[in-house]
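Q: Given only this backbone (147 positions), what sequence would you predict?
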């Protein structure tokens, strides 16, 4: 009798878990559909998508700020900003950018990574625009540290 009861309880738990996993997949699919909803697309203009920070000594940190203006009639949402390498940490405006307002993507470049010389780095930004991906670029010269 006890083993029969344990089997029933175990089966109920297994069924409950399976049902919850199905709901999680449905929620993920709904989120993907919302990101592809063209009714919520807007337009944006990057005022400085290519920047040159000049020359820095190896070991220095460089902060680069890119600005975007929402030129559409819907709120602009930046959903990700992914740097091309580990030498850069990117941050971005996380809240909705209303029509006519500006937001930003910030790149913090650590010149300790890599060799001295000319550098050319990029950040892939995804937002609710068409096309969804914009590539921001910064470049400059890293000189060997003076001794």
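A: Predicted residues:
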């Amino acid at each position: 009798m006890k083993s029969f009861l344990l089997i029933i309880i175990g089966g109920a738990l297994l069924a409950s878990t399976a049902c919850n996993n199905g709901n999680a997949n449905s929620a993920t699919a709904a989120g993907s559909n919302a990101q592809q909803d063209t009714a919520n697309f807007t337009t944006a203009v990057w005022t400085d998508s290519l920047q040159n920070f000049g020359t820095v000594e190896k070991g220095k940190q460089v902060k680069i700020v890119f600005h975007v203006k929402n030129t559409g009639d819907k709120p602009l949402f930046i959903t990700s900003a992914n740097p091309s390498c580990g030498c850069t940490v990117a941050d971005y405006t996380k809240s909705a950018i209303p029509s006519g307002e500006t937001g930003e993507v910030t790149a913090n470049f650590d010149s300790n990574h890599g060799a001295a010389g000319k550098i050319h780095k990029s950040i892939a930004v995804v937002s609710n625009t068409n096309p969804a991906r914009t590539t921001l670029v910064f470049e400059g010269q890293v000189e060997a540290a003076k001794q």
